[in-house]
Structures are given as structure tokens and as C-alpha cells.
């Protein structure tokens, strides 16, 4: 992590600050942070009358302060306009999701027509696979990463079974090498090459939820296409976290949730990306085919608005990702997402990534210099291969004695919570720390590491 050390110290060395654990060190970084005022736009959970140290944005992001007023506005509109609210300003419900396409496209690196807020993550993966997973007797295999989030496993297993294939044969899981935690890109590429004649789909996580590894999406997507497969991505931990270029990388489809780094609330509406070459009738691969959109799970809100309410009209989807909608979106959910995306639009992903690299690098520096060998950082050290999160593997000898059969991770999590630190654990021995650049401070990081030092003594 020498580059992280250089990045941190280059900010403060000229000011005579050489101890990264000193309050003045973190204070200088906070005072010079262009995003420091963004913290004021969020509600931080309290602890003993002060803000907690909240490092759980990789699980549930924080509530924007503006949201309550916007939800009150929705309730007032519903009261005043009733059913006419579907067509009347402000924010007519019939078109409530349309204005979000542009800001969503900026976050994921897409054309506006290629994105749509809809459903929730696992449902959206099923919706996408109904279109993109088209197995044949010869091509039916799916590549995912070993240790994928459980729901991704459930989805692809059920899809394989629905098409009459044994998941044990149809699903190929690419695992880390012995003794490692991250998956090597070359091993993914080798799995694709080894199965190129039987491969139907590659579907990995953009960022692996357990380790925080950021996969090389561009290389893997190209390799999948070269093998004749479709390539899709679960971006639950990537969206709003790392720069994405889904259109330029020629990704076929992607799905995400909005309650982690997008700060839209628990169970909030998800989103999809569908490359325009798949979702428009005028694209070269669709021209001349009256059923260019098929197969697809169809519903009224994906249908052309001009004839959406005509009962005797054949299904014809609107072009783009919006054509994959089945039902009307929850206005409450879209309102929350609109508020969150307004912050992302104001900040921009480039500036957010700049701070993310710095604040997670600062966390890494302090962990290395203060905690040392009591933990192992299992997230890649290369900043190109990670986002905000660092996953910390706790050593058996490093924790306080455990009571009641708790795992080492739960024991440390409870001790951290008593000091006002909110983080996520994965049993038996991993805690995940994710400094969110929109609302976490460098002082948050400094205090956390000193607290962790005390706990692990």
C-alpha cells in the first residue's frame, strides 16, 4: 500500500504533520476535504448524545435530511390531488421514474435510455435472466464467483432448474486460489475459455460483498463476449461506490439495489441497466424482427404508453430499459431515490471516488501502523481493485474472551458498538468497514482505529 501512504502524507507533510494517528492529522484532512459539507446533508445515528461512527453504508446508507420534506410533499400531493396526482405537477406519478434516468446514467456510466429504476435486486436479476439466459442443449452453463451473495446463488440455481438443468453441472464457481481471499482475473478468464463451447452466461458481482474486491469488469465482459456468452453484473456493492462505464464496457445487463451507497432507504427500489443494442428495435441485431424484444417478462408498465390502457392491443414495449418494467414503481421509493441522486449529481462520481480512495487509504494506513498483525486486511491492496470497504479478518488471539458462544466477529462488533461504532460482520471472523465519502470523516476513521486498538489489546 505504498501509494496509499504517499497519497495520505502528501496532503499533510508540508504542514509538519507526520503522525497519522494525531488529531491534527485527521483534522487537517477534514478541513481540506471538498466534500466535508456533504455530511451535513445526512442524519447520523446518535450515540450518547453525539454522532455515532457509522461505517455500515455498504449494508444500509444513511437518510438524507431532505427526504422527510419530500415525503411530506408526496403525502400532501396525494391528499390534495388524489388520483389526478398521476398527471398533475409536481412530480406526476405516471412519469415519476423518467427524470431519474439521467442521474442514474451518470452514476453507472450509461445512456439514459439504458437504465431504469424498478423492482428490487433479486427480482430484477430474475427479470434480466428471463431475457438473457437462453440456454440450449449445448450452451447452458453459468459462471459466478465462489462465495457469491446467497441470493445470487439462489437465483441462478432456480433459473438453471427452470430450464431443466442440474445446477451442479450448469453452474461453474470460480474460487480464490488456496490461501487467498480474492479471485484472480486470470482465473475467471481461464474458466470462460475452458467452457467457451458450453457457456451461456457470466454473472459476477461488480464488487464482491464479502471481500470488497472490485472485479475487472471490462476484461471479463470482453472475454465472455469472445466466448459467445452474455455477461451481466450484480452491482449491489458497486453502484454509487466506484466509477462504472457500463455502456463503454459493452455490458449486456446489470442490476443493483439503492439502499447501500445510494442511501435510498431499506428495501428501496432497485435498478437495471440494459445495453441499448438489446433494448431498441432499431439496433443492428434487432432490425427487421417484429419480436425483437422477446423473450421477456411483460407487464403493463413496460408497454408503450400510447396504448397502455387498451385491453385489445398486442404487447409492445417502450424502447430501452424502461421496457423491462412490469409494474408501476412505488412513488415513495422513487421519491427517496430522487433525493439521493440529487446529491450524487451535485458531487459527481469522480470527486466522490477521489475522496473514497483517500479516506479508505487513510483507514488502511492506520490499521497497518496501529493494529498491525492482529488483523488481516483481506480486501485487495491495489486501489484499482476495491471500493470504499475494507474487510478485516480477526485473528483468534486478538479478541477479548468470548462469552455465550458468540463468534469473534460478534464479540468485537459488540465492543465497538459500546463505543459508538456501527459496522457489519460476517461470521465467524470478519468485520467490514466502509467509510462512505459522502458522510464519513477522517476523524471517524481515526477514532475507530484507536477504539479497535483498545478492544484488541
Give a written overview of the molecule.
This protein is α/β, with parallel strands linked by helices and 457 residues long. It is 36% helix and 13% strand. It has 14 helices and 17 strands. The strands form five sheets. Strands 6-12-11-10-9-7-8 form a seven-stranded mixed beta sheet, sandwiched between helices. α1 (2-12) crosses α12 (349-371). The longest helix is centred in the last third of the chain and has 23 residues, at 349-371. The chain is globular and about 70 Å long. The two termini are 25 Å apart. The mean pLDDT is 94.
Average pLDDT works out at 94
Relative strand content? 5-15%
Characterize the overall form: globular
Radius of gyration: 23 Å
Determine the fraction of residues in helical runs and give it as a percent range.
25-40%
Individual helix count:
14
State the total count of DSSP E strands.
Answer: 17
Largest sheet: 7 strands, mixed
Strand arrangement within the widest β-sheet reads 6-12-11-10-9-7-8
Derived from helix and strand composition plus strand pairing, the structural class reads alpha/beta
End-to-end Cα distance, whole Å, is 25 Å
Instruction: Provide the low-confidence segments as ranges.
Output: none
Task: Break the fold down into its secondary structure elements and pairings.
Blueprint: H1 2-12, H2 23-31, E1 42-43, E2 46-47, E3 50-51, E4 53-54, E5 63-64, H3 66-81, H4 101-108, E6 115-117, H5 121-132, E7 141-145, H6 150-162, H7 167-170, E8 171-174, H8 185-194, E9 199-205, H9 217-226, E10 230-234, E11 253-256, E12 271-274, H10 276-279, H11 331-347, H12 349-371, E13 375-377, E14 390-394, H13 408-418, E15 421-422, E16 424-426, E17 430-433, H14 442-456
Parallel strand pairs: 4-15, 7-8, 7-9, 9-10, 10-11
Antiparallel strand pairs: 1-5, 2-3, 6-12, 11-12, 13-14, 14-17, 16-17
Helix pairs in contact: 1-12, 2-14, 3-11, 4-11, 5-6, 8-9, 12-14
Amino acid at each position: 500500500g505504498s501509494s496509499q501512504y504517499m497519497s495520505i502524507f502528501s496532503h499533510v507533510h508540508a504542514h509538519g504533520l507526520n503522525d497519522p494517528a494525531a488529531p491534527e492529522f485527521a483534522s487537517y484532512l477534514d478541513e481540506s476535504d471538498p466534500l466535508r459539507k456533504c455530511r451535513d446533508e445526512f442524519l447520523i445515528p446518535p450515540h450518547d448524545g453525539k454522532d455515532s461512527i457509522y461505517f455500515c453504508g455498504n449494508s444500509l446508507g444513511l437518510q438524507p435530511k431532505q427526504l422527510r420534506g419530500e415525503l411530506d410533499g408526496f403525502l400532501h400531493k396525494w391528499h390534495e390531488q388524489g388520483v389526478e396526482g398521476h398527471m398533475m405537477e409536481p412530480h406526476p406519478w405516471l412519469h415519476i421514474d423518467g427524470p431519474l434516468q439521467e442521474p442514474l446514467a451518470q452514476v453507472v456510466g450509461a445512456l439514459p435510455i439504458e437504465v431504469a429504476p424498478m423492482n428490487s435486486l433479486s427480482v430484477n436479476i430474475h427479470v434480466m435472466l428471463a431475457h438473457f439466459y437462453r440456454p440450449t442443449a449445448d450452451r447452458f452453463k453459468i459462471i459466478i464467483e465462489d462465495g457469491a451473495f446467497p441470493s445470487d446463488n439462489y437465483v441462478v440455481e432456480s433459473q438453471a432448474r427452470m430450464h431443466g438443468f442440474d445446477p451442479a453441472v450448469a453452474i461453474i464457481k470460480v474460487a480464490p486460489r488456496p490461501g487467498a481471499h480474492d479471485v484472480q482475473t486470470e482465473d475467471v478468464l481461464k474458466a470462460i475459455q475452458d467452457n467457451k463451447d458450453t457457456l451461456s452466461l457470466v454473472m459476477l458481482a461488480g464488487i464482491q460483498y464479502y471481500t470488497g474486491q472490485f472485479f475487472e469488469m471490462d476484461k471479463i465482459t470482453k472475454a465472455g463476449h469472445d466466448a459467445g456468452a452474455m455477461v451481466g453484473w450484480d452491482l449491489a456493492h458497486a453502484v454509487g461506490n466506484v466509477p462504472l462505464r457500463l455502456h463503454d464496457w459493452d455490458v449486456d445487463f446489470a442490476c443493483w439495489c439503492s439502499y447501500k451507497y445510494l442511501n435510498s432507504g431499506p428495501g428501496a427500489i432497485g435498478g437495471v441497466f440494459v445495453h441499448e443494442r438489446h433494448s431498441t428495435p432499431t439496433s443492428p441485431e434487432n432490425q427487421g424482427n417484429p419480436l425483437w424484444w422477446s423473450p421477456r417478462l411483460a407487464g403493463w408498465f413496460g408497454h408503450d404508453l400510447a396504448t397502455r390502457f387498451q385491453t385489445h392491443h398486442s404487447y409492445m414495449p417502450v424502447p430501452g430499459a424502461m421496457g423491462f418494467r412490469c409494474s408501476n414503481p412505488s412513488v415513495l421509493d422513487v421519491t427517496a431515490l430522487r433525493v439521493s441522486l440529487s446529491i450524487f449529481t451535485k458531487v459527481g462520481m469522480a470527486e466522490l471516488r477521489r475522496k473514497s480512495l483517500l479516506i479508505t487509504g487513510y483507514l488502511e494506513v492506520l490499521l497497518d501502523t496501529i493494529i498491525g498483525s492482529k488483523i488481516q486486511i483481506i480486501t485487495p491492496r491495489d486501489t484499482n481493485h476495491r471500493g470504499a470497504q475494507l474487510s478485516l479478518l480477526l485473528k483468534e488471539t486478538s479478541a477479548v474472551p468470548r462469552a455465550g458462544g458468540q463468534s469473534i466477529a460478534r464479540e468485537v462488533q459488540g465492543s465497538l458498538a459500546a463505543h459508538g461504532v456501527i459496522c457489519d460482520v460476517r461470521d465467524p471472523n470478519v468485520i467490514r468497514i466502509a467509510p462512505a465519502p459522502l458522510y464519513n470523516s477522517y476523524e471517524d476513521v481515526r477514532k475507530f482505529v484507536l477504539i479497535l486498538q483498545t478492544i484488541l489489546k
